[in-house]
Amino acid sequence: MGLINETNQQYYAASQTIHVINAGINELQYTFDASMKLYSTSSWSPSDLDYGKNNFIFEYSFTGLDPYTPVNVAYTVTNNLIVLSFATDFSLGYFRVRLKETNYGDYAGVSLKSIVNNFIVAYIGEGKIIPSAKRTDVIFHAKRGMQEFSYDTLKSIKQQELSIPNTLSVILPQDYVNYVKLSWVDDLGVKHIIYPTRLTSNPTDMPIQQGDNGVPIQDEYGSNLQGTPIIEERWGNADDRRISGSYYPDFQNAGINEYAGNRFGVGQRYGANPETSTMNGWFTVNEREGKISFSSNLVGRVIIFEYISDGLAYEKDMHLPKLAEEAMYAHIAYSILSVRANVPEYIVQRFKRDRSAKLRNTKIRLSNIKLEEITQVMRNKSKWIKH
Amino acid sequence: MAISVDTVYRTVLLILNKESRGYLTPDEYNKIGTQVQLEMFNEYFEDLNQQLRIPENDSEYSNRVKNLEEKLAVFKTPPAIANYNPGGYFNLPTPSAPSGQETITSAIGQNAYAFQVLQAAQVSAGTLEVFFDGVLQTENINYTISPGGGFINVLPSPTTVFVINVVLYENDFYKIGTVIYDDELEVERVNRNDFLYINMSPLTKPSTEYPVYIFEKNNLYIYPTTIKSDITASYLRKPISPVWSFTISGGYVYDPANSVDFELQSTEQTALVIRVLAYAGVVIRDPQIIQAAMNKIQEEKVNEKS
């Protein structure tokens, strides 16, 4: 039996139609992979305030042709079974459910819930290396694995498009763990990398007010008095051209025919320090405020903020690419065995190597190396590559 | 396939009477039968535990784990609904059919009502559902049962006349099996001390996807506490006590209609006879019978476990 249960209509159109040909039927079983949910018990009604919060639309047409009209009779939904309150109120016809969210591309992934269930079925039991294990332990190691894989194995980069305000800083995303790359985007939509700078930094604590002899001053509660940040203020007011050495107008586009772009694009200032001569600006991570701060030349610019999360922040994040499924099983098995008493060390080492090998395989798979794409890039370098 | 209570009795009597050693009355036999059946039933769990720890074979009829599972299968009860109690826990599933009920009419100002139909011992050992005018009530909030099970106390004193309907379910619960949420999710059993740590860790905190339960005072405390319905539980029930019923007509005459057979698997018949014999030997004070039966039991045990 194949793994795909949905029909083409359910997948591509995110809808399913049931043709009722017998009178008196009030139960309609839909077979989406996704779970249909009413927001509240009264949100079946199109006039209900929460009607728009249902994750599906239930509608009816006598002929099966458009237009369909929303069903306006009370019903409940359990396990994708719609039970209408009054069968006799309905004439025969077509009942269609349209999901509001599609699941395009979801087949490439497997949910963490399935990982946990599959692991318990296949790896735990009498006569197996792990005779018994608490489900809580499996969940813990699966989630820890998800976090570790997110940091250095999975393609778990998230991106936010932001505009830099006058304050020159943007708040770190709610699920931020570490940044990957920041770029500003020009009028052509081309990205220009913004690098972190060593030229300045954001103090982790607020400045301390000092007396004339340099000794910190305390308030009536015995705590040091705080001052206003001076370093950040100076960096915010700094004219970056005095650092980069640039006195030419910024080039806003990456077009190769742009005059300014040409001059800077080919790099004419031999011996310049790339770290300071960049026109793309700089950023620092302000740990104290939980923000990313930018240099003043980036004010008003549109940026793309690429960062990694840990794969556990939101329900939709808790999916693992199928290419990494085996590595996750190996990770959970090793994690359980390595902390268990009386497991021979050679077994632990075997699973450690197994995990390592499968993780390496996964990294290769997910690096997504395609020969055609490499040759396309390398052609630009006048190198001949047969393929 | 149950073991006939009559066949066992006759076999035991046959062996006992071989040399006019003595006689086992039906009442003695019934008590010994109950004792032996429970004894053998209890041993299954230890035997199963022992067998699970040694390599098993894959044969069709001689796989010891499989055989023990088959012996227990009779007593395994499929998942049944566990009702939510406003006290914040789920009651264990009760048998679908009540074993008795009694209807009482309240009197204004009267708290205590004695049971006339239900036996006090049954009430104290069983599970009750109490309805006031058809509405299910909560124990210790709307009513209490006296320690011996002879009375029901209505809380507070009735100010109107209403009908008290007491439904009794005989408590046949023996061991909890699997607790299931929403027909598909297993609820994991944890201990109270483990739960505190599980609940504190954001990675393991119980959720509706991974619920847990604590089993205390024969109640199921399900976490997260937002779960208030859709809990079912399978369990192992106690064997029903065997009864060799009779009518008196110039002696004891077997009454099959009112008798209850042993519930053990039919493969246990010889073991059952031997064990009943051992107790019968004690009753009739015959050391030879006891010795012979004990030797046989020991022989079988060695054979089964080696």
Overview features:
heterodimer; A: 387 residues; alpha+beta; 7-stranded mixed sheet; 4-stranded antiparallel sheet; 10 helices; extended; B: 306 residues; 8-stranded mixed sheet; flat
What's the SSE blueprint?
The complex is a heterodimer of chains A (387) and B (306).
Chain A: H1 8-13, E1 15-20, E2 27-29, E3 56-61, E4 69-70, E5 75-78, E6 81-84, E7 93-99, E8 109-111, H2 112-123, H3 135-152, E9 157-163, E10 169-171, E11 178-185, E12 191-196, H4 231-237, H5 241-244, H6 259-265, H7 274-277, E13 282-286, E14 291-294, E15 302-308, E16 319-321, H8 325-338, H9 345-366, H10 371-379
Parallel strand pairs in A: 12-13
Antiparallel strand pairs in A: 1-7, 2-6, 3-4, 3-7, 5-6, 8-16, 9-15, 10-14, 11-12, 11-15, 13-14
Helix pairs in contact in A: 2-3, 3-8, 8-9
Chain B: H1 5-16, H2 26-52, H3 64-73, E1 76-81, E2 84-85, E3 89-91, E4 100-105, E5 112-114, H4 120-125, E6 127-132, E7 135-136, E8 143-145, E9 151-154, E10 163-169, E11 173-181, E12 185-189, H5 192-200, E13 212-216, E14 219-223, E15 231-237, E16 246-248, E17 252-254, H6 269-283, H7 287-305
Parallel strand pairs in B: 12-13
Antiparallel strand pairs in B: 1-15, 2-3, 3-14, 4-10, 5-9, 6-7, 6-10, 8-9, 11-12, 11-15, 13-14, 16-17
Could you name the ranges of chain A where pLDDT drops below 50 across 5 or more consecutive residues? none
The total strand number of chain A stands at: 16
Global structural class of chain B: alpha+beta
Task: Specify the oligomeric state.
Answer: heterodimer
Strand order of the largest sheet of chain A: 9-15-11-12-13-14-10
Shape of chain B: flat
Gyration radius over CA of chain A: 29 Å
Helix content of chain A: 25-40%
Q: In percent, how much strand structure appears in the residues of chain B?
A: 25-35%
